[in-house]
Structure formats: C-alpha cells, structure tokens
Input
Amino acid sequence: MRVAKKPGLNSGGFLLPVFRNRVAFEVARGIKAFLNLEAGVTRDGTPEAGPENIGASTGVRRLGWRLTGRGPAVDGSAAANGAQAGRVRPENMIWIFGSGRSGSTWLRSMMSDMERHRVWEEPMVGQLFGVFHKQAQEGQLKSANFILGEPTRKGWIKSIRNFVLDGAFYANPRIKPDDYLVIKEPNGSTGAPLLMQALPESRMILLVRDPRDVAASVLDGARKGSWLYERKDKGKWRENALADTNPEAVTRRRANMYMTQVGNARDAFNAHKGPKVLVRYEELRADTLATMKRIYSELGLPAGENELARVVEKHSWENIPEENKGEGKFYRKATPGGWREDLTPKQAGIVEKITAPLLEEFYPA
Amino acid sequence: MPVYKTRTAFEVARRIKVFLNLEAGAVRNGTPGEASSGGEQVEKLERALTEREREVAQLSAKLVAAENGAGGRAGNVNPENVIWMLGTARTGSTWLGDMMKGLPNHDLWHEPRVGEFFGFYAYERAAGRKTANFILGPQHREVWLRSMRNFVLDGAEARFPDLKASDYLVIKEPNGSIGAPLLMQSMPESRMVFLIRDPRDVAASALDAASEGGWLSQRMKKSARVRARVETATSQPNTLVANRARMYLQAVGKSRDAYEAHQGPKVLVRYEELRADTLNTMKRIYSELGIPMGERKLARVVNKHAWENIPEEKKGPGQFARKATPGGWREDLTSKQIKIVEEITAPLMKEFYPAG
Output
C-alpha cells in the first residue's frame, strides 16, 4: 500500500491511502465498518459491499467477516448481514473436556478451521472453580456461609454462568451470535460438572484416550530437553526433573490427575442433558473424517462433508512437518497402544491400578 | 455523531481513535511496508486485528465498569456498606466480628472464603499465567474483577435477603486474606478493617489449637487436612510454627497491600490495642470507617463480648478463647520457635511491631 498526495482526491486535503491490491483495500474498509465510530475515526458510513467480494480464499473471507461482522449464517442458508456483536450464546459453546495429551489440540485445530468457529484456548475456568470446590472440606460444603456451600448452590451456579459468559465474550470480543465457540478445557476438567450445570444448553465433547498412552506422552514430554520440560519453569519443576529421576512418581501423579479430570468430565457428561458426544482419541486417529462427521452429527451442528474433509486433511498427522514431530516434541507419536513400547511394566501397572474404573469403562478390552 | 453519557465513555472512544491511529483510510501517517503475499498478509492482519480487538475489548470493559459503577445492580446489599475484615486468623477477628454483629443494622457473613478462592488461584496456582485466553488474564482484569464483584454481591444477597441497603454487612474473611487485593479492587467503595496481631502470638495460638485435644482437632475430626495439622503439631511443632509464620507473611502481606491501595474508608487495628482499650478502639474503628455509632451502643457490645464475660469453662489452653494476653508467646513458644517466626515474618514485624 502506498500513500499518495493527490490534490482533489478529497475535499479535506488529507492524505488518502492508495491500495495496491483489493485485499488491503477491503481490509481497511472493513476496519472502518468494524469500528463504525463517527467521532472522527471514520469519515463515511459502513461500506456498501460485503466482504464476500474480497476474494476467493477462505482466510480472506474469514478476515473480512471478523472485520465487518457480516457473513453467512451458520447453516449457510442466508447471509447474516447486520448481525450485531453481542454476548456469547451458551448453546453455541462447545466444551472439550477430558485430559491433557488426548488429542484436544488437534481436535480444536480442526474445529477452529470450520466456518464460524472460534476457539477459547484453555481459559482454565474449570480449574478455577473445580479445584477449589473439590478441595473444600465436607463441613465447608455444608455451610451456608461458604462461598460454594451446598445450601446456596443454585445462586453460585448462576454466578459461575455469568462469570464464564462475561469472560468468554471479552476474550473473544468479535464473536457473533451465530458463531460457535470451541472451548478447549481438558486441564480444567475438574470443574466440568460445575460448568455444565451452569451452562446446561452448551454442547460437550468428552474426549478420552487410553490413560497408559497419556502417561507415556507426559513422561516423554517431561524429560529433560523435551517440550513440556522446556515450557514449565515454575517451582522446582526443572530442578527436580522427576521424569528422569523418578519416572514412577510422574506416572503416578499423571494417573491420579487422569482419574480426577476424566472422572469429573465423565460425571459431567453423564449428567448433561444438552447435546454431547463421547470421542475416543483412538477412533479419531483411525478414521478422522468419519469421527468428525459423527461429532458434528451428535452435537447437532451443521457441517458439510467437504468442509470436514478440508479441515481433516489440513490438520492430518501427515501434514505436520517432520521436524515438528517425534520424541520430545509436542507432536510425538500419535500411535494408539504406543505405551507398550514406552512404559515399563511397572509404570503400566501403576496407571492400570490407579485408573482401573475408567479403564474398565472406556477401554474394557 | 455519538453522544456519550459520561466523560469516561467519551475518553474511551477517544483513546480507541488515538490507539488505532485511523483517519481517512487505513492509516493516518506513513506508508506501510510492501505488501507480502496474500496468505501472509492475511495472517499478519489477523494477528494485528486480534491485538486491536483485545485492546478494544479492554477499553469496552473499562467503559462498562465505569458506566455501571455501584449503580449497576439493584440488590439489597449495598457495596458501600460492606465492611471487609482482613488480616489473618487467630487475631481476634471472631471477637471483633461478634461485637460488630451486635450493633444495630449490622449483620455478619462468617468466612465465605471467597478471598481464598480467587486469591489462591490468582497468586499461587496460576501465578504467572498471562495469556489473553486465561480466565483471570491481565488483559481482561476489569472484566473478571467485575465478575468477582458480582460473585460476592450475588452470594451476599442470597444469604442475607432481609438486609436493607442502609444496613452494614461485615464480612469476616481472615482466612481468605490472600485475595485481599482482588477483593478490595473489585469493591473499591467498600470499607476495610485490617486486623493484625503479633505473629508470635498468632503462632502460639495456632500451635495450641492444633495440639492433641485442642479445639481445632475436636472441631474438625473428619478433615484430613486438620488431622495432618494436628499430627504435625504433635510430632513436628517447629514445622507447624514455620508453616503458620509463612501463612501469616502471605495473608497479612496481601492485606497490607490491599489496605495501602484502598481508597475507600479503612482502618488498621492491632489486636493488642483492641484488647487494651476495647471501647476506645471500637470508637476509632467506627470513626475511621465513617459510620456514625453512638458510644452507648458500642459500650454495650464491648461489655457483652468482654473476655471477662466468657464463662471460665470456655476459655483456657486448648479452647478457642485461650489466653487473650498479648505477649503470651514468651511463655508459649520455645526460643527456637520464636526465632523461626521472627525470621519468616521479619518484614511485617518491622513494620507493625518494630519494638520486637
């Protein structure tokens, strides 16, 4: 984009930008429309042309929609021109619960590339509410004074709802009423029962994976030099380097965490009356497209097969650059049953003992 | 042209304009760099737009908060008449709470632990988490502080439905004091009592309570946490004393921070002065909080809850009402325990008990 001084181009004598290409021009125009502020920010009203004219690529179209608040309705039946930015609709929230290292990043990446989907990445609101509630003493829970006491449950469940909806809106300020908000919250699954009770009309995905593969994945990531080791530097995490010095302790801790997170997510799933779907990582890996179709079908979300195929292809394991995957990387193995090679018999035994109820329920074989 | 209801709204709109630096087209000044390929350009613009959106969201949140202010809700609990009692446990907060509750138009919310709820998460568990996605992310601080405020007020209204807007609600929250800065920021018009006591006496009291047969072990037999504390008090009393001192440092430190930053009515109260001259200290408390209260009313509650009026069988070693003797730590703690407390709480000792 160049800015040229062309006398007569506008009566105010301002410098007007000259755009080299249509994309840049439409983006600038979209920003004006997005702001729609008269107090000197924009000179003109909302542009007449919608962003549909911007260009052929999905990226450009999506950017245009973000800028103008215009775009096709979710079902594609009609344009939702003029849709106002507003609160997040609880029924359009799609929660992903389960446990970390179960393919939630992969699933949310695919979903984020669906039309009119946005992502709220690990807000940890489930951890905020869930852990405090879980750790409360029995006497506290019975007390009407306690902020999360049972006698006033109805009231604070409503407060949680408002807390989440406010947070969701301000973390995703340009969300439109017809947009879907995918909330990736595996590490907040302890609070899944509270969140789903607070938002009963929301959609829920319970994403599970064999706990032995989860433990193997965490052990690999937590070893010195691996991605998790490098990312975490809180407390004595690195100093202790437990994955190298005491892998059984890491395995035990992870298995206990799995029990809490997946156990609570399972409880929420069973109690939830809204649209919901149980997804095993193994089936998502074995037949991604069919599983994605099932997810969208069971959640009652419209999705064309072509669009699903596109996002599945884009985020397939094969399309991750080789240098970004392998041992010690975030994208490690993606091989269900890999724990047989990765865990010692003792480590596998620890996981099986601690997670026995969930193993029996989800992986009876 | 928009008409703004308030100066704040106008300023926010003006700041958005300035921030975005937009005039006639996409930019006001200068020439942007050469356009890159379509895909890269879109990604770059998406990133830039995301940042702008967040900035606008922050400003919007400030605007909403400013426009709503205290008048944003029509509940029966008036935030201005909420009196937070913060500091740490074993500082006489139950005694002070009982006296205040006995005054006309006062009620007491006993330890909701809302400060512990938000404070522990923000300052401990999720400390350092700064992403915009995080529910307590710094980018949306105004939003979640407002949500916290609503959480507290919703909770208060559910529990005290008969409270009138002109009534006072004392929230006794010594064990939630880690969240004091967040609580006071979310309710800036509220009143605050910062109640402290010599940390050595606090440690001595905690040690006595957790001792085998002490009130804590009797009261909470079912709690694994309390059982562990009793076990520690018996087998490793120095460890319990050190833990209590660290807790003091954190809770009183956060309360002190909140107290210093708070612009609303507030008062600092030492347990020792409350014990030495209760009536005059109560008069000072109400004066500094800006709440009119007659001396006879204060004298009545002071007398009713005086140490001397507690039945003998309900006070003494192992009881909740134990000693009420400032400086009793000299008899109760070993020299090693005294040193432990003094070392850990040194910054606060120096500030509040400089005489040692």
Remarks:
- Chain B touches chain A through 71 residues (CB under 8 Å).
- The longest strand of chain B covers residues 191-196.
